[in-house]
Amino acid sequence: MPKFQEVPKSDTNTSAATVCTESLIARRYLVKERLGRGSFGMVYLVLDKKSRKGEELKVLKEISVGDLKPNETVQANLEAQLLSKLDHPAIVKFYNSFVEHYSFYIITEYCEGRDLQCKVEEYKGAGRTFPESQIVEWFIQLLLGAQYMHERRILHRDLKSNNIFLKNNIVKIGDFGVSRLLMGSCDLATTFTGTPYYMSPEVLNHQGYDSKSDIWSLACILYEMCCLDHAFTGHNFMSVVLKIVEGETPSLPNRCSSKLNAIMESMLQKDPSRRPSAAEILKIPYIDQELQNIKCKFSNITMKDRTITSQKEALQIRNALEKKIHLQTLREQSEVQKMTPRERMRLRKLQSADEKARKLKQLAEEKYQENHQRMQKLRCHNFQQVGVDVLHEYNEQSPSRMNQTQPVSAHDYRSLGQPELNGKMISDRLCMSEPADYEIPEDPEAAEEFYHEDDFESCSDENLEIEESEEETECTIFKTYEQDTDVDALVRCMEDVLESRSLDSSTVTTMAPVVPQGPTAINCTMAETKMNRMRESAIQKLEADVFQKVYDYLKMARRQNANEAEVKEYLEKLGAKPSNCFEVDQLLYFEEQLQASATEAKH
Ligand code: ADP
Ligand code: MG
């Protein structure tokens, strides 16, 4: 029974998102939308209500395990605990796992840039290719991630482009160690997990899986990034298998560097022991040089980001200070809010009168200074005149005219936005605390309108908005800082790799062999889940009756060792596209493998 139900978002224009109709999962995860269907179950984007700031969005994988035996569940949980302790910028962080409602849940980091397969398809569709510098950068990140996990004896077993995720253009390997947790660690489990395109010959031949099998898969991913196609292709499952086991090693096109091609070919050697390990590839001079270049580039990015961050922090401090002052003003204003409309209006009028008085006082002082200077000049002038013509008599008016101070003109007062007033009125206005010419309504609503007309600033809502937008800025700054941590961590990883090299450049550290631990048998429940999913998917593509015909024919054809051209022709006659029959072929292969292992176990 599905646990999540499609319910429309409140905004009907956006696509319908999957929303959990139940309460929070494990009392903290809220389903936001469905990201897709994985080979074991549904994958959702969730909001973690208990997360650290900046890490709220996570991925929840719901794996329906039906009647998973208690010991299998315990084992899976123990392995999950180990996985949650790992931390590397090129590995999708595994946060948590738990069992609830007969399902096994895995919580991982969310990568907003989707998976590499999507990116490859997008570029292929647009007729574009990735620049080699970008490919090498991603390839090195993958090697760093693989080296980290392999050093800790954790194998991926299902490396493929749709298990590689992009986050701020950094690639991250997803599901590292998860296949073992779900399927067990025997050979057959690996066969069941993998996608044939990336499977190594030793896995297909049941000759064991080790870290070098992951290296094979990484080479297939490198080929895919360069050519936007699989390294080994075929019309159906068996032809792909044949090419991997017996076919020639593919090469990169001429436009790619020969050094990169040589590395890829060495990773695709049929004998796993001859393939280099991730640590060894990172030491190859060509990769080493690129590693140094990328490290410099990333260091510059972090440096630039740090400068930006400090600038942003300075801005934040300034904003905080402004906010503090602003809050003080708000507090004062809140005192105002408590007043009655009449008191408020009176206060406002008083404030405006005070302001006008201040301006008038200033104006009066200026005028006084002006007159004073003029008088001094005149005195000086007259003194000189007196000196020249002492015997001349002045008429009575002259001294008074000289002493006369210039009154504040009506024009000056008008410049303050007031109607013309005589001197008496001005002095009256200066002492006035009660508006003489209009009454304030007692009714609060009417009073509010009154204030509004009077341009009385309301501080509340507007100021709240300012505060909210400030909070948003803080959040964005925080996010940028969170993003930087991946780049920082990557720089540190690259420095470690480069430093360990300069300490002892002669020794090539050989990988510790990966010892299989935990369950050595295949987890039959999970194998069946996977096979059921494949069957469902094939039926959906072919329709039930065609599926049955294809299934019966392929079963017979595989027993009789029919050649590929013959198989292709027959399937086309049935009206089924060979690409749609791929899963039927793989399903048959799995069934045969499972049967063979059951027979072996009996003997
Ligand atoms: P599979 O079982 O084939 O490996 P997954 O379970 O990994 O498939 O993924 C199913 C879907 O969920 C895909 O569309 C994938 O892109 C998406 N997805 C899985 N993990 C993440 C993640 N960490 N971040 C973003 N999308 C993811
Ligand atoms: Mg996956």
Features:
603 residues; alpha+beta; 21 helices; 9% strand; disordered N terminus; binds adenosine-5'-diphosphate; binds magnesium ion
User: Poorly predicted ranges (pLDDT <50, ≥5 residues)?
Assistant: 1-21, 383-442, 447-482, 504-519
Q: Give a short account of the largest sheet.
A: 5 strands, antiparallel
Distinct ligands, ions and cofactors found in the model: adenosine-5'-diphosphate, magnesium ion
Shape: elongated
SS content category: alpha+beta
Q: Roughly what percent helix?
A: 55-70%
Report strand %: 5-15%
- SSE string, helix = H, strand = E? EEEEEHEEHHEEHHHHHHHHHHHHHHHHHH
What is the number of helices?
21
Average of the residue pLDDT scores = 76
What does this structure look like?
The chain has 603 residues and is an alpha+beta fold. The protein is built from 21 helices and 9 strands. The strands form 3 sheets. The chain has a 5-stranded antiparallel sheet. Strands 1-2 form a two-stranded antiparallel ribbon. A hairpin with a 2-residue loop joins strand 8 and strand 9 (170-173). Helix 3 (132-151) runs antiparallel to helix 7 (211-227), helix 11 (285-337) packs antiparallel against helix 17 (460-503) and helix 19 (544-559) crosses helix 21 (578-602). It is elongated. The relative contact order is 0.09. Adenosine-5'-diphosphate is lined by residues 35-36, 38-40, 43, 59, 61, 92, 108-111, 114-115, 162-163, 165, 174-175.
